[in-house]
Amino acid sequence: MFEAFRKYLSGKGTFTTHDYELIESVLTFKKLRKRQYFLQAGDVCQFHTFVSKGFLRYYYVDEKGQEHIMQFAPENYWTGDRESMYLGLPSKYNIDAVEDSEILLLKKEDHDIMCKTIPAFNDFVSETLKKNAAVLHERIRISISLSAEEKYSYFISKYPSISNRVPLHMIASYLGVSAETLSRVRSQSVKK
Amino acid sequence: MFEAFRKYLSGKGTFTTHDYELIESVLTFKKLRKRQYFLQAGDVCQFHTFVSKGFLRYYYVDEKGQEHIMQFAPENYWTGDRESMYLGLPSKYNIDAVEDSEILLLKKEDHDIMCKTIPAFNDFVSETLKKNAAVLHERIRISISLSAEEKYSYFISKYPSISNRVPLHMIASYLGVSAETLSRVRSQSVKK
DNA sequence: GGCTTCTCTTGACAAATGTCAAGACTTTTT
DNA sequence: AAAAAGTCTTGACATTTGTCAAGAGAAGCC
Fold first, then answer.
1. Contact B73, B56 (CB under 8 A)
2. With an 8 Å Cβ cutoff, are A70 and B139 in contact?
3. What's the pTM value of the predicted model, to 2 decimals?
4. Would you say A55 and A72 are in contact if contact means Cβ atoms under 8 Å apart?
5. What is the distance in angstroms measured between the alpha-carbon CA of B174 and the sugar C1' of C30?
6. Are B94 and B19 in contact (CB under 8 A)?
7. How far does B122 lie from chain A, in Å, by closest CA?
8. Of the candidates B37, B50, B32, B33, which has an alpha carbon nearest to the alpha carbon of residue B121?
9. Which of A41, A93, A141, B135 has the largest CB neighbor count within 10 A?
10. Is a pLDDT exceeding 90 seen at residue A188?
């Protein structure tokens, strides 16, 4: 149940057996079927969520009913709407399972306690936040400066394992491009 | 020299006179003329930078010579390339002054020391990081889901004070839209 | 096995956006 | 005061991207 998590965490810092046990004691294990929601717009996000198996997506649905994927979360990724969680406000976002998945839930309060009681965990969290900010920053750069074709080739070179795991229309949604355009862009680049 | 900074910081937490003095003792004051670079692509970013007066921009120049603005930094904003700073690698970005400005520089090492010795400063920093992440996240949402017109109206409603302080082409560059398109979009929306 | 749903592609066309160039106006520099 | 540089707008046109619709194939479901 926690093997994947332990393995993940051991790569992120130095934790004692006691640390692992403490953290695991406040984690909740949950299985999700493909297409099952974990969070729906309007819910308040309660948990930091670690994906130990499978694949989630975090997305926004606009007034026209279009989905816009904010994040892909395969194994060893964290997801959840931090803003909703911190402010206690309903989320604008949805999270659901792209594949059958297994996730670990960590309540906001417990997360804060872990940060306070386990220095290594606190360091890991702030390190993760920094890295995450760098990823968001880079995504903005891509988003404002590249064409559809360039975005696509950037994506497949940066996330090859995601590229061949999700349908093309989800990549399109992530990149802010229509699925048809991406299909054409890809068939063009094959020719080259 | 530090009045603006003190005023800013006092709104962000509870600091003793001693805390202020300690922080100020490691700050470097610097004036920038309009158009003066503070960071050029290829430099390693050394400082956390607080804008106490004026206006900076943080931008990327692509192979075609096009500028893409990643961040506007008016008074009371922090700027700098964190990634370059943390990794000690040359930055891809430029920072320069849009107006004559006054900035305060805080060396990475001193910043870390402040975080360790002044708990309130540490809290302030992590709070700022969280808020910044939320801003980046929202910008991605805007960027992948809205049209040029929607992006523009979002921008002017969210950042009215920036809108009438910078030339239109910089807003265009920030939004990832051409200056001409933005000019047209704006004249359309005036008619409504 | 057969039905349904998903996924991807392709065509035809529409709409949005970019590019280039020119001109008017303002601000800055000398 | 004159010159230079920057800003904004507009037109004409090209290019990119989106939309709608159809169809083929694959995957999943009962």
1. yes
2. no
3. 0.95
4. yes
5. 33
6. no
7. 11
8. B50
9. A93
10. no
- Given a cut of 60, is residue A126 above it in pLDDT? yes
C-alpha B162 chain-centroid distance: 12
Spatial distance from the CA of A97 to the C1' of C29 (Å): 61
Mutation target to probe the A interface, by most A beta carbons within 10 A, among B82, B136, B170 is: B136
- Taking residue B102's Cβ as centre, other Cβ atoms within 10 Å add up to 17
Cβ-defined contacts of A34-37 (< 8 Å, 24+): A34/A97, A34/A98, A34/A99, A34/A100, A35/A96, A35/A97, A36/A96, A36/A97, A37/A94, A37/A95, A37/A96
* Amino acid whose CA is nearest the C1' of C17: B181
Per the CB < 8 A criterion, the answer to whether B121 and B23 are in contact is yes
- The rounded mean pLDDT for chain A is 95
Please, what are the domains in chain A?
3-108 (2.60.120.10)
B112: CB within 7 A of chain C nucleic strand: no
Distances (CA, A) of A112 to A29, A115, A120, A133, B49: 19, 5, 13, 20, 29
Q: Tokens 């360091």 — which residue? A: A123
CA distance B62 to B107: 28
Question: CA-to-CA distance for A32 and A19, rounded, in angstroms?
Answer: 27
Residue A191 has pLDDT above 90, yes or no: no
Please, which positions of strand C sit below 7 A from a protein CB?
A: 6-12, 16-21, 29
Q: Do the beta carbons of residue A114 and residue A12 sit within 8 Å?
A: no
By C-alpha distance, the chain A residue nearest B151 is: A144
Residues paired with residue A3 on neighbouring β-strands, in sequence order: none
